[in-house]
Design a protein that fits this description.
It comes from Coemansia asiatica. This is rRNA-processing protein las1. One of its GO terms (cellular component) is Las1 complex. This protein is mainly alpha-helical. It is 63% helix and 0% strand. It has helices spanning 13-23, 28-44, 49-66, 72-92, 103-110, 114-125, 131-156, 160-177, 194-211, 217-226, 250-267, 269-284, 288-291, 303-320, 331-339, 344-353, 357-367, 371-405, 414-432, 444-460, 474-481, 483-487, 527-530. The two termini are 64 Å apart.
């Protein structure tokens, strides 16, 4: 018996993935679009509760950001209701059997944080939580839905589109291999050869296939296939590029030139090459939060593989963006016009946030097309080069050399602390004049005398009387006379020890514990006053 197909509200996998990106976009317009599409889906058929909950929570974040004719109390009620429905609808799916189980146990079974259940209980039976707690819970609930539903669904979606893309590209390349480069296009005056007819038929078939693709399929399906081993990066290492030149070999360029031009023609040059550049940079610059600063990539990406990807970046900029501004005489204007076609700000930011040898190479390629950009990025590129060279030397010399060159942190002795304090006092006098030393201690023998003297100065300074005689030297006495003027200088001062007082760590003043919470009345402040 054949299995009954399941009817869903979305028309394609690409539409489903597009709505997922819209709902979690930073742009409020995109989020509104995602919520509107979910409402259209709801009119078609029944939706999974995770999609319903995501759309409701996203809609609440939109209302919270815009705050049109909604006061704080109304916002708290709206947030609370959205979170209550989120917990109830998700947890009820696990409610099975004759006897009902507690919400806490069901939430723990599906991995939902227990404090979501506590917040639901407070919003239902107790006083309404404050707005900050509700907004934080809404954002964390969206994150939980993204991890436990959207990401898992994306990984399990049938990769039918990618399979079709891979088959279409492979078929075109197989036909192209049978034709010499000079005979792939025919002149109108000559009779076409069988190979040329096969090439034209393959091109027409690929054009028809690309015309039926969803725009989001370029990023989600086509570009990932192109970046698989065996496509833009050949499996034969002799056809790959190498550092530091990063030039596309002639054989590889001739193999892909016709296909890339065809893809750009059918999909739009800006759209196609911008998505391709973004995907290449993403591969070369993994998130440093996960891999660490200046950490190398995993072993699946070899040096020749990365060099070939960097070479494709240079090829795209040279062949398809620089030519659009060749008519401009000024080189800077030409480069600026070339970069107007793509958004390089995001690419540069990703390279700078995730420094590595590969990201440094990408930055250098971008700088080749813009002298002004090269001037701005030169300090960062130089610093990355020095850091990478230092790490390379440590790896080469081994752990023994590293232990010798590394600074060894040792606890400071009392004498070392006194020497450092004396050094700071000398620097204070050097940069702020002789008056500064009135607040610095030179040794323990003078500390008490100086503190007593400064206290006497504070007591009589309001009467404009000359300071009394002190046991300090003549130099220190002259310095003390200028203490009042020195105190008026807007800078850090070395406070006398007499003003020091001990208190437990984490307290202020006389041992009071600071209150870092906002008072409850701030939840009811008018939005106009806050903004």
């Amino acid at each position: 018996m054949s299995r009954q197909p399941k009817v869903v509200a979305w028309t394609s996998t690409e539409e489903y993935l597009n709505v997922s990106e819209c709902l979690y976009s930073a742009d409020i317009t995109e989020r509104k679009r995602g919520v509107a599409i979910v409402k259209a889906w709801r009119a078609r058929s029944r939706l999974p509760v995770a999609i319903e909950a995501t759309a409701s929570l996203v809609e609440m974040t939109i209302v919270g950001e815009e705050r049109k004719s909604v006061n704080i109390t109304q916002l708290r009620h709206l947030y609370a209701m959205a979170l209550i429905r989120f917990v109830n609808t998700i947890v009820d799916l696990e409610q099975r059997g004759t006897y009902a189980q507690s919400i806490v146990s069901l939430a723990g079974r599906i991995g939902m944080p227990a404090w979501f259940v506590e917040l639901r209980h407070a919003g239902t039976h107790e006083s309404l939580p404050n707005l900050a707690a509700l907004q934080s819970a809404c954002q964390q609930a969206l994150g939980w839905l993204n991890d436990y539903y959207w990401n898992r669904q994306t990984r399990t979606l049938p990769p039918d589109t990618q399979i079709h893309v891979r088959e279409a590209l492979s078929k075109y390349l197989d036909v192209q291999k049978t034709m010499p480069v000079s005979k792939r296009t025919r002149k109108s005056s000559k009779k076409p050869t069988p190979g040329q007819l096969a090439m034209e038929a393959a091109s027409d078939e690929l054009r028809q296939f690309l015309g039926n693709l969803h725009p989001d399929a370029v990023r989600l399906c086509l570009v990932p296939v192109l970046l698989e081993p065996g496509f833009l990066v050949p499996k034969e290492k002799k056809l790959r590029s190498a550092f530091p030149e990063c030039k596309i070999p002639q054989a590889l360029e001739s193999q892909w030139l016709g296909l890339l031009l065809l893809l750009a023609e059918c999909l739009g040059e800006t759209l196609f090459f911008e998505e391709l550049l973004s995907a290449i940079v993403a591969i070369l610059t993994p998130d440093s939060v996960e891999h660490g600063i200046f950490e190398s990539l995993d072993s699946t990406l070899s040096t020749s593989h990365a060099a070939t990807l960097v070479a494709w970046i240079r090829w795209i900029l040279e062949a398809h963006y620089h030519h659009a501004s060749e008519q401009l005489e000024d080189q800077n204007e030409a480069a600026a016009a070339a970069f107007e076609l793509i958004n390089i700000d995001g690419l540069l930011e990703r390279c700078l946030r995730n420094p590595s040898y590969f990201s440094r190479s990408v930055l250098k390629v971008f700088c080749e097309f813009d002298t002004e950009l090269k001037r701005d990025l030169k300090p960062f590129i130089d610093y990355m080069g020095k850091a990478l060279a230092a790490l390379a030397s440590l790896d080469t010399n081994g752990k023994e050399t590293a232990s010798k060159t590394a600074r060894k942190i040792e606890p400071m002795s009392e004498r070392a602390m006194e020497q450092e304090e004396r050094l700071m006092a000398e620097r204070l006098e050097k940069y702020f004049g002789p008056a500064a030393i009135g607040n610095a201690c030179l040794d323990d023998a003078q500390d008490d005398a100086k503190d007593e003297f400064l206290m006497e100065v504070d007591e009589i300074s309001s009467d404009n009387q000359p300071p009394p005689s002190s046991p300090l030297s003549a130099t220190n006495a002259a310095v003390a006379q200028s203490t009042d003027s020195a105190r008026n200088v807007s800078r850090w001062d070395y406070m006398p020890r007499s003003s020091w007082s001990t208190c437990p760590i984490g307290t202020v003043g006389l041992g009071d514990i600071p209150t870092l919470e906002w008072p409850a009345w701030t939840d009811d402040v008018c939005p106009e006053l806050v903004s």
